[in-house]
Amino acid sequence: MASLPVYRWRLAPEGLATFRQLRALGLRPAGQPVVAQLERPRRRREPLVAYLYRIDLARPVRPMTPAKRAALAKANAARRICPQCGRDAGYRIPTSLGMCVPCADAPAQAA
Predict the structure, then answer these.
(1) 42 Cβ partners below 8 Å, 6+ apart?
(2) What are the residues facing 87 on neighbouring strands?
(3) Mind spelling out the 3-state secondary structure of the chain?
């Protein structure tokens, strides 16, 4: 098994991009394999790693259909409803709390 070429931060050759860079260009990897790896060194920890894809093999991002847009809106709306009080919190409820912040703080204030 051949290993991937590793480039240091900001030293990747032209024609390669990370997933986020492809998205910024309106592209997607389209099933192509990872061709290289980018490493950003950090102090006292392992380096951050990003995978690189070829830009010339990338394809345009699929357009958002009305059905996908409606499904995404419905899923986001469901994440805003507090299961404890049933109100729309106005933000996505954190999974760490499992309820809106006022409901999470209520038992702490009563004690």
Answers:
(1) 48
(2) none
(3) CCCCCEEECCCCCCCEECHHHHHHCCEECCCCCCCEEEEEEECCEEEEEEEEEECCCCEECCCCCHHHHHHHHHHHHHHHECCCCCCECCCCCCCCCCCCHHHHHHHHHHC
List, for residues 38-84, the tens digit of each pLDDT value.
999 999 999 999 999 999 999 999 999 999 999 999 999 999 999 98
The token pair at 98 is: 């499992």
For 31, residues 6+ apart whose C-beta sits below 8 A from its C-beta are none
pTM flag (> 0.85) = no
